[in-house]
Amino acid sequence: MLRFAFPLMLGNLLQQCYNIADTLIVGRFLGAQALAAVGSAYTLMVFLTSIFIGLCMGGGAVVSLQFGGKNYAGIKQSLLTSLFLIGGITLLINILVILGIHPIIRLLQTPPELEEVMYDYLIVIFLGLPGTFLYNYYAYLLRAVGNSVVPLLFLAVSVVLNIGLDFLFILGFQWGVTGVAVATVASQYVAAIGLCFYTLHHFPFFRLQRSDLHYDRKSLREILSFSSLTCIQQSIMNLGILMVQGLVNSFGTGVMAAFATAVKIDSFAYMPVQDFGNAFSTFIAQNFGAGKTERIRKGIRSAVLVTTIFCLLLSVLITGAARPLMQLFVSAQEEEIIRIGMDYLYIEGSFYLGIGYLFLLYGYYRAVRMPGMSVVLTIFSLGTRVALAYILAAIPAIGVKGIWWSIPIGWALADLVGFVYYRFTSNRCRSK
Predict the structure, then answer these.
(1) Which of 171, 159, 183, 192 is nearest to 56 (CA)?
(2) Quick one: pLDDT band at residue 237, thresholds 50, 70, 90?
């Protein structure tokens, strides 16, 4: 699992470098207002991207099960079905967000002085959604058959290109936040197109022939079962973050800028835990498909141990380095922004164990054909987070810190539900 997970971890850490580079350059060279606008737009993009990722993860889970059972004909049919299904949804979403860009900006409670900057950024970023879909689609196909290294290599090239274009467009051409968006979109398309050609060239069973182009109702049902639930889980989880972003925006530009920076640090920190959860899910799915019960049990024990050790070390690191991490992105003179961001990192960073266990629970239930439970856990986490955020933030003595505290409380509640349910259903992995 660690050998498989490491490229996933490194790959998504590199993917976060898109956002880290943007935040660092924007914060240092374009100022607090631009940082607040890009950070708020980032939360929206995470929500939209989570829809594609959830669909692709579901399709990848089906391919994992079929690959474990050596069902290559089923893989081709799943490939055809998922490509048309997810591609069509991507196109529909792309059209809707471009047409509704102004209502979206208002829905996020964007301060009036930031609306024009957000529009300039979002209109370009939205044009990159097909590239985001294409990359994740082929990345999850390769990961489903045990190849997590190649997506990493293409992503590494894309990240380097993104950083170079950031400096060129912002410092050289003086394009402002539009330059940040253009750099990100161009880099995403490079990774997506390259990975697509590589996959089709090196994996013959992913190539569709004319004889494969036929409708299969069973395949559609299976893809919809996995992809829709995984998509709902991912999008609901990030919808909660988006709703919280609207509440954060109501506190003004300073809190927006602090949140934008701290969230990037936070996401970068626990991304390896999320990727380990995805690798754990692939491991369980392949062994579940092959009927290897004892190997599943050993995998669970090992995954819990690794997650516990890593999350505890991560908590010590992030809470101990909160100030210098914030000062990487904003000037030392922006003391209020730094202080607010440090409060966020102290609270979130102390409880990474909660999100680590939650990612394992998500992965386990997806792998043993119980994706609905992953959705239930997400709803428990989301519901607590959003409700408490609005309740606690309205108390003057607590204020914005109430938003920060609502997140680990949501993790803890979902963990409790997931562990209790596992105790009653753990014999599920004994049969296919």
Answers:
(1) 192
(2) low
